[in-house]
Amino acid sequence: MSKKYIFFVQGEGRGHMTQAISLYEMLKEQGHEIPAVVIGTSGRREIPSFIHEKIDTRLVQLPSPNFITDAKNKSINIGKTVWHNIKEYKTYKYSLQQIDELIKEHQPDVVINFFDLLVGLYYRFYKPQTKMICIAHQYIYLHSDFEFPNGRFMDKLMIKYYTKLTSRGSSKNLALSFYNIHTKNNDVVFVPPLIRKELFELESEQQDYFLVYLVNNGYYEDLIAWHKNHPEVEVHCFTDQPAKLNQLYAYKSDKLFLHALNDKLFLEKMSKAKGLASTAGFESVCEAMYLGKPVLMVPVEGHYEQFCNSRDAHKAGAGIFSDKFDLSQLMKISSKFNSHNRFYKDWVLNAKNRIYNEIINT
User: Fold this and answer.
1) Strands 33-41 and 319-321
2) How many C-beta atoms surround the C-beta of residue 138 within 10 A?
3) What confidence tens digit (pLDDT) does each residue in 310-339 have?
4) Are 37 and 24 in contact (CB under 8 A)?
5) CA–CA separation, 234 and 257 (whole Å)
């Protein structure tokens, strides 16, 4: 029997959005209805064009709490983040009212939340009867057997608290993961990554260039600094507002290419790259692992979630982590990297059935 779903998606980075696309296509193929997809925005980033291309339903953008970075768009500024979100209280209150109107208008059977805080707040204050499923890598933090990196105790408490806030009132939390944990936990179900179907159509090969994905484009100056010392190395970098970066930096090279976020081109470039350097976002690391590409993971400063991702992915065999975009490290491991992770590929290929069954049985 077909059901009606509404998606709520955190708009920070591209990971939650591409996961939403994958699930959107999966549910539509099975005859289910998704009358609206809501993206929580901060005004700091543009919604990539591929969202409009892939989601052919009502697309709603609502202001949602998010991180504030420093002036160079590199590190997370916790103090400014807290103060900004407090000042925007009335804006977020209006967003909650719009969510309530959407729910009442469409009357979905299930709400699916891709880690957007607004929805957790909505269930906290409005207490709707509609079931909610939360799906994101971050829900792994709520499982008692997940191994956090040593130290940074307060960061650990904060990310767990924030994650719980996003899932208030949830019927089920699906934790997208590099691996499975079999220990039973009623609050969390481990599932494979939601990778886009286009990835499975690609053949992995190795051409003579490296790929870079920057969630925070302030790191582009670090990439330029490295490339000035290695001008012979071809690098393709994807980030938002590339035209602005080209105006901001005078550095020009026929070996350093700057691209706007484009899901199809990004995957094509990844399938042929010698390796990927990224700010440790879950989705891009998963894609690189499936294609057998080594990853240099550089967490955004002050972004504890990415800090955890980089360590967890390293244990899963994705590559190495660092505190700077030194592609020399990636060059060293690319020649001897073991690209045949059969266990991980089998885990990923099981995603569609596993996730679909978890959702329709809620």
Assistant:
1) unpaired
2) 25
3) 999 999 999 999 998 999 999 999 988 877
4) yes
5) 8
Q: Residue holding tokens 């959005």?
A: 17
Q: What is the residue-wise DSSP string for 127-176? A: --SSEEEEEEGGGGGGSTT--PPSS-HHHHHHHHHHHHHHTTT-SEEEEE
Determine phi and psi for 282, rounding to 5 degrees.
-60, -45
Q: Give the tens place of pLDDT for each residue, 74-109.
A: 555 566 666 656 667 788 899 999 999 999 999 999
For residues 356 and 30, the answer to whether their CB atoms sit within 8 Å is: yes
**Residues ≥6 apart with Cβ < 8 Å to 42:** 11, 12, 63, 64, 66, 67
Q: Crossing angle, helix 153-166 and helix 304-315, to 10 degrees?
A: 100
In this structure, what token pair is assigned to residue 29?
Answer: 């193929």
Alpha-carbon Rg for the chain in angstroms: 20
With beta carbons less than 8 A apart as the criterion, state whether 119 and 113 touch: yes
